[in-house]
Write a structure and sequence with these properties.
The chain has 283 residues and is an alpha+beta fold. Helix content is 27%, strand content 24%. Helix 4 (151-158) packs across helix 7 (203-222). The chain binds a DNA duplex (16 and 16 nucleotides) through helix 6.
DNA sequence: CGTGCCCCCTGTCAGC
DNA sequence: TGCTGACAGGGGGCAC
């Protein structure tokens, strides 16, 4: 579900409410969400103070300092939201009635509770040492919104693979944070057919893809993400970007550019949406 | 090593 | 009103 813009929205929303807060208790309702042993998960995080809330690709990253005989050790909590994961901060006297599938609750020292909620339970919570966290982060591709992510770097990486460019965009080792919605939107805006082998993109197409990918991600962050079904912000509200989608989920609706009906194509096990007129097939 | 397919799980919706 | 099958923002594992 959540891609880069949704994860970024959640990180920004959580930050003011959780940074500086101490975790008083950890409650686990669904053990299969944890990448570490449940008892260890509790022991590692209980009593820790949340120092930073950030994002890497589609993952939320919380740095937590935990006192331990006279000094502090740092644990890094990484939350992958899967398809239906939510991280919601529930304030002391507010209702959490709409949280029907809670998985993990972190009770904070101001009475609020950070709830990990996940209907399908494809999400995962991992706890890393700083060293293991760096190793994990290094296994992911570059951040597409980073200043250092240039059109030259994108073109160079595209030229290394014969995969369909839509599959290329979904591979987190190649580029971090892009999922099926924004891959399809970026390709439409750059007028590139989703099945084009990555290495066959021209210099000009690489430039357009770089520009349009970054533009759509920024615009989606501005809209607080895309809510189709399950995604919610850290306050439990919906993102507004769904109404701005041009092709994703719009099979048979007219292309916003030329009016040709949008087509859906399944490959790599998921749907690709595109305009057959604006995005010509590979030869 | 790279790539494609299946599966994990729950909920919703279209069609019969 | 059911029932069934398709499908859904992700990603790990496995065969080739």
């Amino acid at each position: 579900m959540p891609e880069l813009p949704e994860a970024e929205t959640i990180a920004r929303g959580l930050r003011p409410g959780v940074v500086g807060r101490t975790i008083e208790a950890v409650e686990i309702l669904r053990e299969d969400l944890l990448a570490v042993h449940p008892r260890r998960f509790v022991d590692l995080l209980t009593g820790g103070t949340i120092r930073t809330v950030g994002r890497r690709g589609k993952n939320l990253v919380l740095s937590i300092d935990v006192p331990e005989d006279g000094h502090e050790r740092t644990e890094v909590l990484v939350v992958n939201l899967g398809m239906s994961g939510r991280l919601v901060l529930v304030r002391p006297r507010s209702s959490s009635a709409d949280l029907t599938h809670p998985g993990v609750r972190l009770r904070l020292d101001d009475g609020s509770t950070l709830v990990y909620h996940d209907i399908r339970r494809f999400g995962r919570l991992s706890v890393y040492t700083p060293r293991a966290h760096r190793r994990w982060s290094a296994s992911l591709g570059p951040e597409p919104l980073a200043k250092s992510f240039t059109t030259e770097e994108l073109s160079r990486r595209l030229s290394e693979s014969a995969s369909p460019v839509r599959s290329w965009l979904l591979d987190q080792r190649r580029i971090a944070g892009v999922g099926n919605i924004y891959a399809n939107e970026a390709l439409f805006r750059a007028r590139i057919h989703p099945e084009r082998p990555a290495k066959t993109l021209t210099r000009e197409e690489g430039r357009r893809l770089h520009r349009q990918l970054r533009a759509v991600l920024r615009e989606a962050i501005h809209g607080r993400g895309t809510t189709l079904r399950d995604y919610r912000t850290s306050e439990g509200s919906e993102g507004s970007y769904a109404v701005s989608l041009r092709v994703y989920g719009r099979e048979n609706r007219p292309c916003p550019t030329c009016g040709t009906p949008i087509e859906r194509l399944v490959f790599g096990g998921r749907s690709a949406y595109y305009c057959p007129n604006c995005q010509r097939r590979p030869k």
